[in-house]
Specification:
This protein is of the alpha+beta class. Helices cover 40% and strands 21% of the residues. The protein has 14 helices and 16 strands. α1 runs antiparallel to α9.
């Protein structure tokens, strides 16, 4: 037993080394079908764990899936697209199983441009869709019609290629430098990131100004107007880091996290791509419309919480007491959320210290053994999707304990052979 414990500790040390010393860098934007290994024309990537039965798909995600099929020219109507999903003619796969992540109700199809995030130290590569901007009527929130299709086509034909050209001309943008420069400016960098997005905009605009394209000003205007652009860049960067971390056997560290609106699940380095899932809890906090209720919301939906695996969001809640206030919490709650995450983590990032937390960094490396042993589960921040489409609000939830217990049981069964 001591030999097994020693193997686990060495494996976890390796994963923490990856998490702490990686250098996530935005290096490109490319169509998903060209850049994501194993991606096929008749495939869609969705957030969260896989579906055993497609009939369990909530309406808002169904809209995004079917709209993406029409966008790819594989069907002409929503009904025809849904039939292709039901028959398996179009395969739907969890994005995180392909080193990609889909925020909220986002779906990635073959022609859609994705941000390419590379860890320049350990070599992992990850992918994420581009944030669509402040327009609430978008595929990211489960809408699809002629207006949404027009935007998707512009992103595919103009915006994505322009961002890719600009980033390549710069030799990439290091995400750690963004996080370090904006530490102490109120971002927790999952649901709130105006400071980080502004820093990213300042980095990229000079390169965008050099582009020799007809719609250059439109590209700059769209990018500069989006105070959430950094989120999807960080998602791609995190997935690049996790590509390496998830390949370390015998590790008990969490490497995947997300919800599909029906199920919420986690993965751990030592158990491969096996998902440990429970019925998706709801993200509760402030609703955007006073007439809406909890019954209007889908269960946890989205992969943007992969940034929390890196220590952001709810795990670094103390960095953004203002957002915690929106979830119904206080400054003391913000501090407790971060302290709880520290209690069950194996490392701490020191490159972006938080001034009002005694200049401490944010925790990273959630160990499922510590979660189960202490009975402490970390808090996740997020936006909530409405069942019928659109953002319902924003808030928080406790990551379900049963996911950790399932993972730990499976891990020890694997170890014991």
């Amino acid at each position: 037993m001591n030999a097994i414990r020693e193997q686990i500790e060495k494996a976890n040390e390796k994963v923490i080394d990856i998490l702490l010393n990686s250098q996530p860098t935005w290096v490109d934007v490319k169509p998903a079908g060209e850049i994501i290994p194993g991606f096929e024309k008749n495939m869609l990537l969705h957030p969260g764990p896989p579906f055993e039965d497609v009939n369990d798909i909530v309406p808002t995600l169904r809209t995004s899936l079917c709209g993406s099929i029409i966008h790819e020219g594989l069907a002409s109507t929503m009904d025809a697209a849904w039939e292709m999903i039901k028959t398996g003619e179009v395969a739907i796969k969890p994005a995180q199983d392909y080193n990609a992540s889909c925020a909220a109700v986002t779906v990635i199809s073959a022609s859609m441009p994705v941000i390419v995030g590379k860890d320049t130290v350990f070599g992992g590569v990850g992918y994420a869709s581009i944030h669509p901007g402040p327009n609430p009527k978008c595929l990211r929130w489960g809408f699809y019609d002629e207006d949404v299709e027009k935007d998707l086509s512009w992103f595919r034909d103009v915006f994505g290629p322009a961002l890719g050209e600009a980033v390549r001309s710069m030799g990439g943008i290091n995400m750690k430098t963004i996080l370090a420069r904006t530490a102490g400016m109120g971002d927790e960098n999952h649901v709130r990131q105006p400071a980080s997005s502004s820093a990213l905009i300042l980095e990229l605009i000079p390169a965008l100004l050099e582009l020799k394209i007809e719609q250059r000003d439109d590209v700059i205007r769209a990018f500069a107007a989006n105070d959430r652009s950094f989120l999807h860049v960080m998602m791609a960067g995190t997935m690049g880091i996790l590509e390496t971390a998830r390949n370390v056997p015998m590790s008990t560290v969490m490497v995947a996290m997300g919800g599909n609106g029906t199920e919420f699940g986690l993965q751990f380095a030592g158990t491969g791509k096996q998902w440990f899932s429970v019925p998706a809890p709801k993200i509760l906090g402030q609703l955007l419309n006073p007439s809406w209720t909890e019954a209007d919301l889908a269960g946890y939906l989205g992969d943007s919480c992969v940034t929390e695996i890196y220590g952001l969001g709810g795990f670094s809640a103390i960095a953004s007491p203002a957002f915690v206030r929106l979830t119904g919490g206080s400054f003391a709650d913000a501090k407790k959320r971060t302290e709880d995450a520290r209690e069950v983590s194996l490392g701490e990032h020191l490159f972006a210290p938080i001034p009002w937390d005694d200049y401490r960094g944010f925790p990273v490396g959630i160990d499922m053994r510590k979660v189960v042993a202490t009975n402490i589960t970390p808090t996740s921040h997020g936006g909530s999707a409405r069942l019928v489409g659109g953002q319902g609000g924003a808030g928080s939830m406790l990551v379900p304990m049963d996911c950790f217990k399932q993972g730990l049981r499976a891990f020890y069964e694997l170890v014991r052979g």
